[in-house]
Amino acid sequence: MFGRRADGRVLKKIDPIIALTPYLMPMRCDAQVFLNYKLDYEKMARYIVEKGNEGNKFTFMELIIAAFVRVASELPEVNRFVSNKRLYARTQLAVSFALLKDTGSADQIEENTVKCYFDPRDTIFDVAARVSEMIQQNRREEADNSTMKVAKLLLRPILANTVVALARFLDRYGIMPKYILDASPFHTSMFLTNMGSIGMPAVNHHIYNFGTTTLFLSMGNIVRETQVGPDGKATRKRWLPIGITADERICAGAVYSKMVTRMIYYLSNPALLETPPETVAFEEGNAYSLPPSKADKKLKKQKQKEISA
Question: What is the Cα–Cα distance from 208 to 191, expressed in whole angstroms?
């Protein structure tokens, strides 16, 4: 409340035009901007194969997340969000994504939505390890994280309306409990969906008005095109299409342009993601924090038992 939130800090030194924009466009659905780009599938695929031969298994999704994490370390403006018409610098760097649960049957389709936290100094190896661990924890048929448990609890319309209305109120005034913010996939730096995994093209997905998501990125099915090469001969080219939906209120268009340009650069040269960034930029002294892992929580409980004994 009064500009203080568990997941962000109010920005004070911002462009007056950007500060005014949330009053002109109070909801995210008012401020959605849609972009479409094509990534060089050949370069990314060769890199994945090369690293696979060395014993490091990467996926296209992990490469894209690693590129976003690296760009966020250079352009902290892309990790902002708007709440109650005020602009915040996020205190965590997170990516949410949906995954299919392993039900053991092709006819039974169930999804789980998860949120993975990152350090801006993460390399592609760190990102892949964090994503892989999160997927393993949430892909099992019996795995229900906090989001799924709440969703199942709110199957009754009256209860759902009441709880959601309360959640919106608490979120608007910045008094949502931190453990709920940490569990919510809608309070994230970027939401990523892999449409190609179900044979679909890239889409421009809407941004949720609930929560703080400011970027939604969609990966689509591989596109094959014929193009004329430098020698004048026709060649076959494969592209990985992506659809980006962004909240234009959080920063200048030039920053978004630089974000996309830098992401494409890193994904065209993924080996650059193997080393940590030399420096990390933060806004107004803000710094990201990682929530404790399950191993940390288990160790803490064990120490508490030892002390009480």
Answer: 10
Residue 145 class from Cβ within 10 Å (0-12 exposed, 13-18 middle, 19+ buried)? middle
Measured CA to CA, the distance from residue 118 to residue 133 in angstroms comes to 13
Q: Is 243 exposed, middle or buried (0-12, 13-18, 19+ CB in 10 A)?
A: buried
Distance CA 121, CA 302 (A): 30
Helix boundaries (H) for the chain: 16-24, 41-53, 60-74, 124-139, 146-153, 157-172, 178-183, 253-268, 294-308
In the numeric block, which tokens belong to residue 67?
């590129």
Q: Which residues contact 248 (CB under 8 A, 6 or more apart)?
A: 21, 31, 32, 33, 256
Model confidence, pTM = 0.86
Mean pLDDT, the chain, whole residue set: 86
Give the other-Cβ count within 10 Å of 62's Cβ.
Answer: 21
Q: State the average pLDDT over residues 112-119.
A: 90
For the record, the structure tokens of 170 come out as 């608490």
